[in-house]
Amino acid sequence: MRLSILTFDGMTALDALGGYEVLARVPGLELEFVAREPGVVAADTRRLGLLAWRGFDEVRATDIVYMPGGPGARVLERDPVFLEYLRELDRGSTWTVGVCNGVTVLAAAGLLAGRGATGNWYDRERIETHGARFVAARHHRDGKYLTGGGVSASLDTGFVLARTLGGDSLALALQLGLEYFPEPPFPYRSPAEVPEGMQRAVRAFSESSWTTQRDVVPPFGGHYGVLGPQS
Q1: Is the pTM for the entire model greater than 0.90?
Q2: Which CATH class is domain 2-181+191-213?
Q3: Phi and psi (nearest 5°) for 13?
Q4: Could you give the C-alpha distances from 108 to 73, 182, 219, 228, in angstroms and in order?
Q5: Best CA proximity match to 191, nearest among 152, 143, 133
Q6: In this predicted model, what pLDDT tens digit does every residue of 45-77 receive, in sequence order?
């Protein structure tokens, strides 16, 4: 079984790598990183690059589509080439996975219309604009579509998929092996419980950060700025 993690300029690394750390350990699963063009793709911080060794032209079908998010994903919501590529992969996939505002990109491609989906907490309206029903949860499955909340929920989503693919024993062994027993420093159990002032500040930062970060040249070079339109 083949799992294709889609990468793009301005992605949030943990969106992809959380799921990767879990799913790369599933026996028999062939995992690859795919970008519009092969090469090093810069993350949103511009201090980390991920190597996508396969391009769109090489990967026209896969068993599992994995769409991470990040501020650069805002561009992809309006990128007809990327959206059509998503639809092409989804037509033959067994599973289609989205994390954070990568879920919004899936919705923008029309893949989640009429379905329940979770995603980044402040993307609820955007997801629903594209015809999906937002579910306030850490992860959610509707048919072959598995969606996860923001960033760190990539780990939870990975464990859920691992359990589906390999059963309880495998998923538990992976959870133990990665020592995933979260104990966050604050008592809030969901974004809705965090004080509204902090919610507003984080939302504002998240919506504006890519405007300044996208023009920062990564020190390692790579395919900065060539993986899609920047405005």
Answers
A1: yes
A2: alpha beta
A3: -60, -45
A4: 11, 32, 32, 16
A5: 152
A6: 999 999 999 999 999 999 999 999 999 999 999
